[in-house]
Fold these 2 entries.
Entry 1:
Amino acid sequence: MKVGFIGAGKAGFSLGKYFADGGITVTGYYSLHENSARAAAEFTGSQFFGELSDLLKESGVIFLTVPDGAVSSVYGELCKFDIKGKQICHCSGVMTAAAAFPGISRRGAFGYSIHPLFPISDKTESYRKMAGAFFCIEGSFEHLDEWKSVLEGLGFHVQMIDGKDKPKYHAACAISSNLFCALADESIELLTQCGFTRETALTALSPLIRQNTENILRYGPTNALTGAVERNDIQTVEKHLSCFSTDNERELYRAVSQRLIRIAKEKNPQNDYSELEKLLTGGI
Ligand SMILES: NC(=O)c1ccc[n+]([C@@H]2O[C@H](COP(=O)([O-])OP(=O)(O)OC[C@H]3O[C@@H](n4cnc5c(N)ncnc54)[C@H](OP(=O)(O)O)[C@@H]3O)[C@@H](O)[C@H]2O)c1
């Protein structure tokens, strides 16, 4: 397997370095800007390519580690050449291989989406922490099992996914990462209304966030759940609902707490949460 990269950004640098260290031949990099591609080539001990056609000639597998919005146009550029027999991969969490690479089988090539379920925040450091990450993959059946073996051989976990489920899969990832940022931000804002600075709010919340995250990961969300909703404490929830200054914030609290009731019912099937449910759905 000889792998070339188009797009010398965070994913390109990190996957290339991880692959090269794992014994896979990385041919080199082509990128929008020559200096990025040269830096990635140096980092991974591979070549800089100034022409797409040269990268294509040298590589059996081409990773398009460009922003999601650029995948189609870069694929269009590749299709100006003969791509027969090549494997073309992208790393988008939401796009399918078929949508990204239309007509690929007619060209005798194979398309894959190979999504690392991992936050790659730094070009040169993130790869060090990637071992054990999950990769979610789908695409042409011809080499799919081979990809599973290759990635597992590199120390990753692999989950095959049906292309039609990718938006749902990506929404799940966003909830656990991006949406959590929104909840943390809301929490910090409420504390600033109580006299905290944003910095002290974050410091004060740190043990709560850390321990709660640890409990969720160790015991699962049901066993980790504590608080007013789980205790069926209607008065406290009423007080919470009265303190928001915008409908938006109140709706956020209501929507998330309704999901908490579902978990609380599972945890405490003997409790009757119907009054609390009415309060949270606006019935009271
Ligand atoms: N970062 C993550 O945490 C993460 C995690 C999972 C999946 N992914 C996926 O990985 C892919 C890349 O994301 P990223 O975070 O690595 O983005 P990034 O750091 O912004 O890197 C993208 C690179 O693509 C290059 N590029 C842009 N347009 C191009 C074009 N038309 N032709 C050639 N190169 C082009 C840019 O190169 P120059 O530097 O030369 O301008 C840039 O360095 C995306 O599909 C993303 O969804 C990212």
Entry 2:
Amino acid sequence: MELRLAFIGFGNVARAFARILTHRESQLARDYDLRFRTTAIATARHGCITSSDGIDLLKAVDCLESGRLLAELDDSLSLPDSAVLIECCNADILFETTPLNPVSAEPATSHIRSALTRGIHIVTANKGPIAFAYRELKSLASQRGASFRFEGTVMDGTPVFNLVESCLPGARVLGFSGVLNSTTNLILTGMEAGRSFQESLAEAQRRGIAEADADYDIDGWDAAVKTVALANVLMDSDSRPSDVDREGIRGIKLEDLKSATAAGIAVRLVARGKQTSNGVKLTVAPEKVPVASVLGSVRGTSNALVLETDLMGEIAIVETDPGVEQTAYALLSDMISIRTGMRAV
Ligand SMILES: NC(=O)c1ccc[n+]([C@@H]2O[C@H](COP(=O)([O-])OP(=O)(O)OC[C@H]3O[C@@H](n4cnc5c(N)ncnc54)[C@H](OP(=O)(O)O)[C@@H]3O)[C@@H](O)[C@H]2O)c1
């Protein structure tokens, strides 16, 4: 079966995904009867194009990485914007990978709403819509018979939502604690090793893991949005990022980290969710944790999440040194899940 794919956002994640897709084309056809044709791509500054014959993904990657406009690709037709793209892309799956907007989750939420309304399956790595509109979008997807998948929004491609959905049926998640933001963890562990805040931040930006606006990482917004996404999906909360008691890592000094390290203590930006008698309580703040604990042991871009469940006790998930390719894998695994779901009907 051939699936028509459209992309809104063609940055680090989408381009890494485009490379995986191209290199795995024959495996996808053989193992999942999944062939694909890219019918549209939208960006903010590099144009917005459609092609009924199909866009060559590697040529599109090369175009953006050499600073050219998508309209330079052969046989493509320019469109005014993403809204028009959704109307006319004729896609089966839309990949939404625009940057996080932690204040309103727009325009990503509108893109997803508009596509779901047309019955287009959604795969997104953008956590904003999960934190601001999960219930609405999930319900819309179910009304329109479309899938709404977002494994890449927390811990990149490491199974978190899929783990609970597929492997913990019948169990309830009562709470969680996690180191969920790679950029701040790279900065904190870089500072533990004596590097400056700015040097470590520059490293995160060089690796393509920092948010387009890195203040969203440093001030704890990215972690707060992930905290809300976990609570909304896994704990049936209907929280918003403003409900999170949030503190970032701006105030942490090199000397604080040096003395903590000498005492066997690690400072980590910890996200917590807890079911209480007053609803779900959510926090993000730097915490001192033992170096030997799950959260204290994650270094660099690594992430960890400890889920507290009623029937399975605590389950710890660790993701070691992820890069943008891991998030790209999440898009692939979500796409395969959609295809598998189609075959099961
Ligand atoms: N990078 C990671 O490791 C990672 C990990 C997990 C989740 N995520 C999430 O994945 C998403 C994408 O991350 P990324 O690193 O790929 O971001 P990025 O490199 O900054 O790329 C963002 C893309 O979105 C486009 N864009 C921005 N505003 C748009 C709009 N209004 N309409 C259409 N296109 C628009 C940009 O266009 P231009 O190219 O013209 O600027 C660019 O192509 C973000 O939500 C991020 O939080 C990223």
